[in-house]
Write a structure and sequence with these properties.
This protein has a 6-stranded parallel β-sheet, with helices on both faces. It has a 6-stranded mixed β-sheet with strand order 7-6-8-9-10-12, sandwiched between helices. Helices cover about 45% and strands about 15% of the residues. The protein contains 11 helices and 12 strands. The longest helix is centred in the N-terminal third of the chain and has 28 residues. The chain has 2 domains: about 130 residues, 3-Layer(aba) Sandwich (Rossmann fold), CATH 3.40.50.2300; about 130 residues, 3-Layer(aba) Sandwich (Rossmann fold).
């Protein structure tokens, strides 16, 4: 082959490569860009099964609806300043929507207002913020959940004995915790024989809940029951009750659902849990954000419901689906 033909062939190949590249560029421009959302849970601690279940719901919706969802959060639920700083940066990055589980009912309000003013769709999930700033709030009715917990505590403590009951809450200022506590107190308040102690806060730390329960068992020898308001708090309280062999005298009612909680339920250390549907929350939050961005109408409040699980009903098929949502039945 002469040099002339060699150069001609090379030139032809280069032309073909350039044509393919230009064609691909044109196709990519024609393809719609995926919506970009930011999901901010209260914590990214993978040991807390509630938030992992919600993340799976977010991921499934993202895949189903072809949405790019970035996950960012703080290691601890009590790091309110950290969540605020993260949201400030998100305003600069400007995703199309932010799905937020707020760590504080009041302190998140200013940055939430700036999110909306920046033209970013705001959807809150699990824990809301004051003034109804978000376009939609997807969560359990935590006040009703608290009332259920209060009723279960009434049903399990020995009514013939005198003694107080305690509430171990989560993070002071969290809307979820406030509503649950209000529900518990309102339900227990109807019984004049029951004294409810001042609320203590675990900061969503299993170890802090464990230490607080040990102190309650020491300082309140007639303690009759405890309502623990989230997963790590329940596990810490249960560990202390079991360790101090106080199972027969102190009844424990909790929230959420984890393998450790189920084990304590089976051992009678824990009498009942109020189980939410975090997977549904995550899934519906992504769908709500997508619909809002498309100009569709979305309900301002979507209640995903909750159910009381006890040792007596935990083996029923519908309850098993709540306790083990990712196991094929």
């Amino acid at each position: 082959m002469t040099r002339k033909w060699t150069w001609a062939l090379l030139f032809t190949v280069l032309i073909m490569i350039a044509a393919v590249l230009l064609l691909n560029m044109g196709i990519s421009k024609l393809q719609p860009k995926k919506p970009h959302f930011l999901y901010v849970p209260k914590t990214t601690d993978q040991q807390v099964e509630f938030w992992e279940a919600m993340r799976q719901g977010v991921n499934m919706a993202a895949e189903e609806f072809n949405v790019d969802v970035e996950v960012a959060g703080m290691p601890s639920e009590s790091d309110i300043d950290g969540q605020i700083a993260l949201l400030e940066q998100a305003i600069i990055d400007k995703p199309q929507a932010i799905i937020l589980a707020a760590t504080d009912y009041n302190r998140i309000v200013p940055v939430a207002k700036r999110i909306v003013e920046a033209g970013i769709t705001l959807v809150t999930v699990d824990s809301g913020i004051k003034d109804g700033i978000s376009s939609s709030f997807i969560a359990t009715d935590n006040y009703e959940g608290g009332k259920k917990a209060g009723q279960l505590l009434l049903d399990t403590i020995d009514a013939s004995k005198n003694g107080p009951v305690a509430i171990i809450s989560v993070v002071r200022g969290s809307a979820t915790a406030m509503e649950r506590e209000r529900g518990v107190r309102d339900r227990l308040g109807g019984n004049p024989a029951i004294k409810v102690l001042d609320t203590v806060y675990s900061n969503a730390s299993e170890q802090q809940a464990y230490e607080m329960t040990l102190e309650l068992l020491r300082s309140e020898p007639d303690l009759r029951g405890i309502a623990a308001l989230n997963e790590p708090t329940v596990v810490g309280a249960a560990r202390a009750i079991k360790e101090k062999q106080a199972v027969s005298r102190v009844k424990l009612i909790g929230f959420d659902n984890s393998m450790e909680e189920i084990a304590y339920l089976e051992e009678d250390v824990l009498q009942a849990i109020i189980v939410q549907k975090p997977f549904n929350m995550g899934y519906l939050a992504v769908k709500a954000a997508l619909d809002l961005n498309a100009g569709k109408s979305v309900q301002p409040m979507i209640d995903t419901g909750s159910e009381a699980i006890t040792k007596e009903n935990m083996y029923a098929s519908d309850k098993q689906k709540l306790l083990f949502p990712f196991v094929e039945k």
